[in-house]
Amino acid sequence: MYTPEMASAFKSIVPPKDFGVTLYDNNDFITMQIDPNELVDISEEQANQIVKYVNDVKKTLESFGVVVFIVRDSINKEEND
């Protein structure tokens, strides 16, 4: 399902500094995975940039007619203290 055209469109979206997502092709849909550790201790400005980036990626991939799911693992608070 993940085509070269989708890959090109995805790569053309510039991510915020020190942030990225991983895409998984599940044949019937694409999963966009976010590393929760990249969300710890970020500023409001960084959060806004990340939200914009994630939305841009999702909308871009959906423009090709695919379903996109966004996932992240939970953050273990004890690991980040």
Describe the structure.
The protein is of the alpha+beta class and 81 residues long. The chain has one domain (4-11, 21-74): GMP Synthetase, Chain A, domain 3. Helices cover 33% and strands 19% of the residues. It is built from two helices and three strands, in the order αββαβ. The chain has helices at residues 4-11, 44-62; strands at 21-25, 30-34, 68-72. Strands 1-2-3 form a three-stranded mixed sheet, covered by helices on one side. α2 links the parallel β2 and β3. The longest helix has 19 residues, at 44-62. The radius of gyration is 14 Å and the shape is globular. The mean pLDDT is 92.
Q: Can you tag this structure with a few keywords?
A:
81 residues, alpha+beta, GMP Synthetase, Chain A, domain 3, three-stranded mixed β-sheet
Q: What's the quick description here?
A:
The chain has 81 residues and is of the alpha+beta class. The protein is 33% helix and 19% strand.
Chain-wise SSE layout:
Layout: H1 4-11, E1 21-25, E2 30-34, H2 44-62, E3 68-72
Instruction: Return the string of H and E elements.
Output: HEEHE
Largest sheet: 3 strands, mixed
Number of helices: 2
| Spatial strand sequence of the major β-sheet | 1-2-3
Q: Could you say which overall geometry the principal axes of the C-alpha atoms support?
A: globular
CATH topology value = GMP Synthetase, Chain A, domain 3
